[in-house]
Structure formats: C-alpha cells, structure tokens
Structures
1.
Amino acid sequence: MNDTPLTLSASDITHYSSTHDVLVVGYGIAGACAALEARRTGADVMVIERASAGGGASAVSSGLFYLGGGTGVQKACNVEDDADNMYRFMIASMGSENADMIRMYCDQNVEHFNWLEAQGIPFERSYHQGKAVFLLSSEGLLSTGNEKLWPYREIARPAARGHQVQEEGDSPCRLAMERLIQRCLDEGVNATYDSRATALIIDDGNNSIVGVQIRKNGELLNLRAHKGVVLATGGFVMNHDMVASNLQTSPTLEPLGTPYSDGAGIRLGSAAGAATDAMNGLIATASIYPPGQLIKGIIVNRNGKRFVAEDSYHGRTAAFIAEQPQQRAYLIVDSEIFAYPEIESARHQLIDGFESIEEMESQLKLPPGSLTQTLADYNLHAAASRDPDFHKHSDWLKPLDKGPWAAFDISYNRSSYLFMTLGGLKINCNAQVLDREGNAIKGLYGAGACTAHIPKSGKSYASGMSLGPGSFFGRVAGRHCASAAQ
Ligand SMILES: Cc1cc2nc3c(=O)[nH]c(=O)nc-3n(C[C@H](O)[C@H](O)[C@H](O)COP(=O)(O)OP(=O)(O)OC[C@H]3O[C@@H](n4cnc5c(N)ncnc54)[C@H](O)[C@@H]3O)c2cc1C
C-alpha cells in the first residue's frame, strides 16, 4: 500500500514545500476539532487530507455523540445526570484502565457539548423514548448504550447520553462536519486536499516528529511542523491485512467505514515507535431492535441456551453471539410480540412459525428438550417479573406463552453483521502518542479512530463513543500541540 518509507530522517530532507506550526493529518471530526483548537491557540495550522474534501467517516455517520453529565439537552428532557454518575457508569462498563481519560472526559463533557453547539452543531431539545440504533428524525437525545443494563443500572443512575445532531436523514453528521470545516475556513486553518500523508519526518537528534511527507498529484512534498503533528486519519476497518492480522472476525462481517479508513495513521505512528492498544477490539452490529418489543423475546444459541440479556446494547449482543458455538443464535418470540426486525441491513431471516416449542426445537436442530426447558424456566420467572439468570430489566419481561411461536436466525453466517475497529495508537490525557515504554513521543499527537478508543470491545461500546471522545480528544490534541515549545 505504501510506496515510500513510513518514516524519514529530517537530516535527509533538503527542501520543505511549506512550514507551519501544526500539521493535522485527516479532516474528519477529530482532525477538524484539533485544527480549530490549535488555530485558536494561535498556531498556523495546515490540514492534510487524502480525499478531495473533508468529512471522512464522520460525515457519513449517524451523528450520535456520547455526551452527558448534565448537558443542555439532558436538562431540557429532564434526564438527570452529572459527571460522577457518568464516570461511575463508564468505569463499571469499561474497566479502569483508562480511568484518567474517562474522568477528564466526564468532568469536561458539559463544556464540550456547549463547545460543539457554539460551533453551529445543533442538538434538538427532545427525547426519543423508544429503542433505536439511529434516528431518521431530528430528536436530540436517545439511550444508546448499556446504562439500563444490569449490573450497571445498580451502580449508576441510568441516563440517556446519545446526542444526535439535529438533522433528518441517514447522515446527520454531514451537517456537523460542514459547520466545523466552515469554522476552520473562517478562522484561517489551511488545508491541502488530495494529499496523502506517506511518512512522518523525524528529527533524530531529539527523536521528535517535525514534519510529514505527502503525495499530491503524483509528487512527494515535505511539510515542516514547528510544534507537532496530529494524526487523525480514522480507523483501519478497510485494511484487509490489518484486519486479518489483528482481529478474530468472522468472514461474513462487513466493514463499516470509508475507503480511506485504512489504518494509515496507525502505521505511520507505529513506524515512528508508537505503542498501539486494543488492536483486537471491534464493535459488530446487526440489531434485533427496533422495534423494542422484540427485546421481550429470548436469544438462544444452538444448544438452546440463553447467553446474553436481550436488553443489551446491540453491539454487546453481537459480541456475545460471536462467542457462541459456530456463532449461531436464534431470536425466539411468541405471537404477542411478533414483529419483523426493522434494521434492513441486518437481514435477520424469519425461519418459520411453529405451533409448539417442541416443533421449533426439532426444526432448529437444537438438543432435544433444551429450548423447552429454557423457555419453561424463563416463563416461570418472567411471570414474576424476574430474570435470575441474566437480569433483563422488568420492562422487557413477559412470559412467552402465547403461541404460535416464531424464530429468527440471527447467526453471524446468516444475518449481515457490520463492524468497526476500536484499536489504534495509544495516547495519554494530552492526546500525546505514547511510545512502547509509555513515554510521549515529542511532537506526535493522535485523536479519533486512529487511536485506541476508551471502550475496547463491543461489549462496552455505546453509540456515540467514537464521535464524542474523538471530537473531545481532537480538541485536546490541537490545544496541547499548539502550546508546545518549538
Ligand atoms: C455509517 C456509519 C455510522 C456511524 N455512526 C456513528 C455514530 O452515530 N456515532 C459515533 O460515535 N460513531 C459513529 N460511527 C463511527 C465514526 O463515524 C468514526 O469512528 C469517526 O467518524 C472517526 O472519526 P475520525 O475523525 O477519527 O476519522 P474520519 O472521520 O474517518 O476522518 C479521517 C480522515 O483522514 C483522512 N485520511 C486517511 N488517511 C489519510 C492519509 N494517509 N493522509 C491524509 N488523510 C488521510 C480520511 O480521508 C478522512 O477524511 C459511524 C461510522 C459509520 C461508517
């Protein structure tokens, strides 16, 4: 994929085509936020973008930002939240490995929400109460994660934190990117398009990153950075080799990204000595909801056993299905809650309707008696609004006793699961890229999907956890890099 080395020694560079304080590689959400904040810190900024326009995967995304702590939208919708509550949930569901970054993110979340709005990104003061993966309407708030799931609901007060950009249609974040890039233009951020970053330029004297080599119109050009370089090139879902060597994916998983989500920033940073993290992390999705009523069904594996609370976030359910024998799973419903899954891209197939559970068990080739037993146990407890095995919330519990029954095949090899990568360059709270000894690499910053996410697996991800932290740490990167000594 690369026709030149990924690092170059500054001592070998004889000519720089231009010189700036800060070079930002990639003009998605992380890069735009980095560029804007670096510029506002007084830096001369150049954005290097491989495509002919900015936007990246951010512009085609569903526009959900995971924000909380008491934002204006949460307050207007009477959703109680504060920074400590948000922190408790995030630590409980993601672990404490990134506790300092999570603390910082939660503490500064209301300020970050206000900042996004101040750039012209609108968020409607309205609450979508139903279960949804994304919205085609303009409501500003919905529940997008595992906040209501056991045990998290007992550790932190559940609060909806999915903030959707106010724009109807399937790519609401296009508007956010237009607004951010317009701000960048208005405030004097420079950009070079059709320019692929091919190498980082290293000052061997003090081991710092001092520039970027780009390929533009077939020509290699060197750009000098006095203060540093921010890598914001997105994830690596479209890089077949990186996916094959890092992820244990099913061959049927389909990548979700743009052609340039090819891991360039991770490869550039790694070549310059950067550590990576969570490279085996992914979020896969083929949601059973909407409609929410399907959550009242049960999901079983090919042994006829339940293995996940059906009210989990869709990425968590998918992660558990991936661990089941042959990655097979069936959604079982009764006639009272029967509906077809609405997410068309998931292509969950109705297997059939059945007059009895025994008949279904036999047709699905489940071990004799397995599903009958699972359903009998489930119904017994559901009648008392309990789920001792998986603690599904009582909102979603009802005995599945109104035949006929139906089964949907939601296996990995039958349905269509999409996935995104979660791993990348390791950064600290200043968004500085860390080397393999844990030290910050001088002059090198990272933000967005080319860095390791705060959630490292689909089990702990929530929609909005890419755009939220990506925009936040993009800002951090821009400010810190621009304030660095030359
Ligand atoms: C359909 C879809 C829906 C999604 N919905 C959501 C959602 O609702 N909420 C959420 O949080 N996440 C969502 N995501 C994920 C989210 O969009 C991405 O994780 C996020 O946008 C990544 O932002 P980024 O700035 O890191 O990268 P990007 O937005 O991908 O930007 C990276 C930029 O770098 C450029 N680039 C790449 N390589 C080079 C190079 N060598 N030189 C120069 N430029 C380069 C690219 O062209 C691109 O413009 C969704 C993703 C998809 C595909």
2.
Amino acid sequence: MTSSFVTEDFDASKWENIEPYANDLLTRELTCSGCLERLIKDSSTLAEHVSEAGTLLSIAMTCDTENSSKLQSYLDFVENVQPKLSEFADALNRRMAGHPAVEELPSRYDLMIKCIRTDIGIFREENIPLQVEEAKLETEHSTITGAMMVEYDGEEKTLPQMAIYLEDTDRSVRESAWRAITARMEQDAERLSEIYDELIRIRHQIATNAGFDDYRFYIFEAKHRYDYSLDDCLQFHDSIESVCVPLMHQIHGERRTALDVEALRPWDVGEKSGGGVDIHGRSPLQPFDTVDELISGCSNIFHSMSPELGGMFDMLKERDSLDLESRKGKAPGGYQANLEKTRIPFIFMNAAGTQGDLMTMVHEAGHAFHSCYSSELDLIDERNPPLEFAEVASMSMELMSHPEWGEFYSEEEARRAKADHLEKIVCFMPWMATIDAFQHWVYANPEHSREERAEHWLELRRRFGPKTDWSGFEDLKETSWQGQLHLFQVPFYYVEYGIAQLGALQLWQYHRRDASDALSRYARAMSLGNTKPLPELFGAAGLNLGFGEEHVGSLIGELNEALTEIQA
Ligand SMILES: [Zn+2]
C-alpha cells in the first residue's frame, strides 16, 4: 500500500481492483482511536475513487443513452460493483462503530458515527439483490424517457426541446404541442405504471426486511432525516395549502382573465409550477441562442455578483465540466454531480434557449459553488451536505442573481422574467406538496390498486392543483404523476426542494437588504459541507428551519410584495 493508501491510477470501476483495499480496511489492526481515524481517512480515500468511477460511468450513460457499451459499463458497475460495495460498507461500518475506541474519537466524527449507526441499523443482506433490481428499473425508466421523441413542426424533437412550444402565444400551437407530448408519453404509460408498481413492491419489501412497517419509516432513516418527521411534512403540506394555494389561484385567475379564456386548459398554464405562455401576448423569452452565449452570460452574472463566484464558474468551463445542449439520446433533466477524487463538479442539462434553461444553469451552478466551497473538507462524508441544504445553495442563487439578469435581457424582459420566477415559486410549492403527499400515501398503502392510486392522485390535484380544465383528457390526468422523474428514481426526494426554498427565500431577504452580507452568509454556510446537523447549517447563514403556517406565510408574504412591486 502506498502512503496515500491507493495509487493514483487505480481503476475503481472494477471490484477486483477495489477488493484488496477493502480487505486491508476490514482486517488491519486497530489498537487506538488514532488507528480508527486513519481507517476513516483511508476508507474516505477509497470511497472517493469508487464514487468518481461510478459518477463518470453514470455521466457517460446519461450523455448518450443510446450507446449500448456505455449503458453496459454503467450496468456492470451497478450489478457487479455496487452490491459488493454495500456489503463491504456495512462490514466496515460495523467495524468502526463497534470498536471501543469510537468513544474516544473527537467530536468532529459525531455526525458521521450517528449516520453509520443508522446505516447499520437498517442494513439487511437480503436487500442487496432488491436494491440491484430497483436500480435496474430506475435505469430502464431513464432509457424509456430518454428515448421519447416527438415528430413536430417537420422535425424529430426531444421533450425538453418541445418546452418552447408550450409558451407559444398561438393557443392552437400550444395545444398541438401539448397533445404531441402527452400522446408520446401515453405510448409508454403502461410500462411506466408497471415499473412504478414494481418499484413500490421492491421498496416496501426492503423496508419490511429492515423491520419497518412501511417504506416511509425506512426512507426517513435511510435519508438520515434526523431533524424533521413525517408529521412535520404533513404540517408543511397544510401550511402550503393555506398560504400558497390561494395565492396560486389568484395568479391563475389573473392569467385566465388576461388570456381571455373561459377556463385554463393544460396548455395554458404549467402543471408543475405555473407559468406558461406570456399573458400579455409577448413571445417566449429567449435569453440565448447558443450554449456558448449561455456560458459567457452566466460567467458575467457571477463575476458581477462576486469575483469569487465568477472564478468558480469559469473553472467549470476551463475544466470541460459542462454538457449543456439538448440532443437526441441524452437523458432528460439537469443535474450537478461531484467528481469526488478530482473534487470538480460536473453540470448536465438540456438547454434549448428558454428562460427555464437559464434558471437551470444558475441553479446547477449554485450546487457547483457549494461543492467548491466545501471542497477543502477532508473526508467525502464531510463534503456532501443533506439535500435540504444542498438545494438552498442552488435555489438561493436563482433568487440572488435577479439584479444581474440584464445580462440576458432588456429592463422590461428582466422584470418579466423575475415576476415569472417569483410566481413559479408560489405555484411550485403546491406541486411539491402534491408529489410529497402522493409518495406518503403510495408507500403507506403499498397494496393499493392502480385505480386507487389514480383516485388519490386526483384528490391531491383537487386539494393543491390549479383549476385547470382537463375535459377530454381525463385518462391522461390520472397518470400525470408519471412526468415526475423523482417518483421513479429518487423516492421521497422532493420535500427537500420545499424546505430548501424556505431557506433560499430567507437568504434572498438578506440579499435584498445587503447583497454582500447575504453572499458572506452563503459562503460561510456552504463551506460547512456536511459537518453540522441540518438546523445548524441553516443557522450558520442565519436561516430558520420551520414548517409552520406563520413562517411560510411571512416568507411568501414578502415574495408577494416583491412581485407586486415588479409588476407595478
Ligand atoms: Zn438542485
């Protein structure tokens, strides 16, 4: 073994290469708390290499879903390396947490040991093959949705490329685009329902194997949600229902009046977060044509906010860490991934020139800044913050960049884009509550039939959704949850966006009063990575973690004031 524990050229995509290092960690002599610290450090180094190998394979696959050898390499990793890693991680966890010297470790390791003890508590060997099955179904979901193309306007288009037609001022264009998209999704609706049925069955089995009544309790543990409960989520849904839903209806009412239509149809307003066609009949905002324009404009935005952020963003371009344009065979969506060994973030998205694409870029850049700020922290576990805080980094960047949007827009266009963004925050919260409440119900009632699932979905749509007229498309409305990738691929990852949005809005309040103060709060909190519990991460930036109606009401209240100012 080298002094840095693993050699630099070590290929961690193959188990036979990982195994000798894993064996060393599992068998080396541990006589003191210093040896235990060394073990933690070395296992972090190994985890960095393995994580980076897996991330690179996943990036290669999502950038080119039609390339069967890239898919195969990723699947090899999922099927042959990850199960062995889970087993190894559990053995290592037990070795660390069970060692008498664990009590002598400095407090720096408290959170990590707490997480390790949770992971030991829920680990079951018989869940490993189930998790492999789960990952394969998730990959099939990616392949199915990545292959969705629509014949429109004489061309084959990806679904992200179709987004722009849903903002067309000609209602018949919007309708035909919406019909084309949903018809394409309908072709795979049966298989997607089967995949979801199967995922629910597998996940429930994983939970009961681990001794839980159902998957909700399992996933709260697995996600280390120590600082809020199932009941807090339900309270959050109630707060959103009383604060955001009425405001959303008001916003949609104005939309209906301005568009001069009897009822909003699904092509008149975005299902997930409102928005859609401009209500004053202006063409969709087109902040950029090419990906190069997007990159150089964002570089200017971040440099104007602070030289530090600008420098971090430029580094991504220089290191070739951006894959931004939409093309056939690329998985949908956008993400930021960390390359843990090289400690460089990677950003993936499907840019087609819309305001939404600009927001995605700024959002993912916020994640990348978070990675940069925490990149100096020693251990992999210390650098990966909980998602409830990770999304504060990205969502607050969307809001705090408002004053710089002139980079892409005239003054009037910028006002319009900001109003659109603020309205979407209001309207997104009810959608978030819908998705979260849906998952709570789905996993609390794992034996449900598809009819019951549809019925409950529609009930949630009535509680939280816009008063959109779906007549003629009732079947589609019943399965409209299928458009939400998270339900398939990252179960219960959604309330984090709502929790984080509350944090982002608080940072935005600071930023409205004193921009540089807000950015130093941002830097201070983001530099902590994952070294503190969630309430302390919020606290480091001066933010409160809360779910009550009063808290939500005061934040959305200030947002609404800002919205009124912009629109005046
Ligand atoms: Zn994000």
